[in-house]
Design a protein that fits this description.
This protein is α/β, with parallel strands linked by helices. Helix content is 17%, strand content 33%. The structure holds uridine-diphosphate-N-acetylglucosamine and calcium ion (CA).
């Protein structure tokens, strides 16, 4: 079976009160529409067509690499009209699944079930029983429980409005039959729109059994119309993500204060304290501990390493048994080997730190290649930028950099060398020797502090 997917995303999203199109608002760090396209891909769709609205170029640009076909619906004449726009792009599929760009939490399992329950018939509709069905289309059934149609709330009689089985909007149809039904849609209804839902009545009238199934959870079919609903779905998404991690062996100090805005691969016994944000792709090996208030983006952290409170790590690889923070900033292209320590108020960028090396306090290391067993004293600065070019600082194994030293790159500190505190190192320093640049200390005997002059 070749599956085609139509994603409806032409709505204006006025209630978001935003210059950003609704489907580009992020949920879990990804645009709403990306979530839906990802589900379509996971179902193995042969073709995905996204219907976007007038002025939707911003949506196309934002999701240019999404691998879907884009079709513009210049005027929003209804959900049926939107699907009609997509059909020419789906001539080679067997069945067409309709999803919504603003319904991001639909699960692949639910969609797979919808596909399977309708395998032997022309139409399947995802319906739900909701206690307060206001606003939804209602599912009409005959005395035998067979679906006979869907009526929009605005067109419904009071009796029909009492029905609690609603149309979620998601449906799947055999393509050739769908083409026929779409051709017969009219817009003679209260809203003057071409309703996709009317295909249900047309199918039933032809004797096609309309298969139905429900989502496992109601949030799966919840749409985003305003920022309040977006925030509610965000929390639902985060709770779900947190529960999955906990079941896989991760301790979360408080699942309500954890935010996954990317992908987290975490091995057993990782422990994450409160207010940690994960972005991009993050890998945490077994026993890693992340302290409170940390941001981790696109990084890998080795076994048993500890990241202490208030650290920001981005684009870095960190080995085993290392310690980072509190208050450390680890920037892209940094590699910290096993047993390294990067302490408080240390900023480190495009730098490699060898096994067991330490920079414990108040330091900037940029564009540096640092060997093993090196101790970088407090206040050390690599002067990597002359205002025009960046240069590299090399610090060989076992070197000791005294506090408050400035290493003016390009420069190399030899293996086992010691740099005296407060030095400004501009030339390479020999291995195993003490090098320092320091004005001699003097004492002026009998010197007096100035005294305040009497005011005239
Ligand atoms: C629709 C269903 C209703 C269902 C409800 C579930 C129809 C006629 N009604 O109603 O039975 O209970 O969804 O939420 O289908 N869209 C377009 N182009 C258009 C119109 C809509 O792309 O011309 C898109 C919107 O961007 C939105 C989706 O289709 O993502 C649903 O449109 P909306 O107007 O919200 O439909 P409802 O009236 O809520
Ligand atoms: Ca709606």
């Amino acid at each position: 079976m070749r599956l085609g997917v139509v994603v409806l995303a032409a709505g204006l999203g006025k209630r978001m009160r935003s210059r950003l199109p609704k489907v580009l608002h992020p949920l879990g760090g990804q645009p709403l529409l990306s979530h839906v396209l990802e589900k379509a891909r996971q179902l193995g769709a042969a073709r995905i067509v996204t219907v976007y609205g007038h002025g939707g170029q911003q949506v196309r640009d934002a999701l240019a690499g999404a691998g879907c076909v884009w079709v513009e619906q210049a005027e929003q004449l209804g959900t049926g009209h939107a699907v009609i726009q997509a059909m020419p792009q789906l001539a080679d599929v067997d069945r067409v699944l309709v999803l919504y760009g603003d319904v991001p939490l639909i699960s692949v399992a639910t969609l797979a079930r919808l596909i399977s329950v309708s395998a032997d018939t022309g139409l399947g509709v995802l319906t739900a029983d909701v206690p307060a069905p206001a606003g939804y289309g209602r599912v009409l059934r005959d005395a035998h429980g067979r679906v006979t149609g869907i009526v929009e709330e605005k067109d419904a009689t009071p009796d029909q409005r009492a029905i609690t089985e609603v149309n979620t909007g998601i449906l799947i149809a055999e393509r050739t039959r769908l083409v026929g039904w779409l051709a017969r849609l009219g817009n003679d209804n209260v809203q003057g729109e071409y309703y996709l839902t009317d295909v249900t009545g047309l199918a039933a009238a032809e004797g096609v059994a309309v298969a139905t199934t429900h989502p496992a959870r109601l949030t799966e079919v919840a749409g985003v119309n305003d920022r309040v609903q977006l925030a509610a779905l965000e929390r639902d998404y985060q709770r779900h993500a947190a529960e999955e991690l906990m079941r896989a062996g991760v301790t979360l100090a408080d699942p309500g204060r954890f935010d996954l805005r990317g992908t987290l691969h975490a091995e057993q016994d990782v422990s994450i304290d409160v207010n940690v944000v994960i972005e991009g792709e993050v890998r945490l090996s077994g026993g890693v501990r992340i302290g409170p208030n940390c941001l981790l983006k696109d990084c890998r952290i080795g076994p048993a390493t500890q990241v202490l409170a208030n650290s920001v790590i981005e684009g870095a690889q960190i080995g085993a048994d290392a310690r980072v923070g509190p208050f450390a900033r680890v920037r892209p292209e940094t590699r910290l080997a096993d047993q390294t320590h990067v302490g408080n108020f240390v900023e480190i960028k495009k730098t490699s730190l060898g096994v067991g090396s330490k920079a414990n306090h108040l330091t900037y290391l940029g564009d540096a290649e640092i060997g093993a067993g090196v101790n970088v004293g407090a206040g050390t600065i690599t002067c990597n930028y002359d205002g025009v070019n960046k240069s590299v600082t090399r610090i060989e194994d076992r070197a000791f950099i005294g506090s408050n030293s400035a290493l003016v790159a390009p420069v190399t500190v030899g293996a086992g060398a010691t740099i005296g505190a407060g030095s400004v190192i501009t030339r390479d320093t020999p291995a195993e020797e003490l090098t320092l640049t320091r004005a001699p200390q003097v004492t002026i005997p009998g010197w007096q502090r100035p005294k305040k002059r009497p005011s005239s």
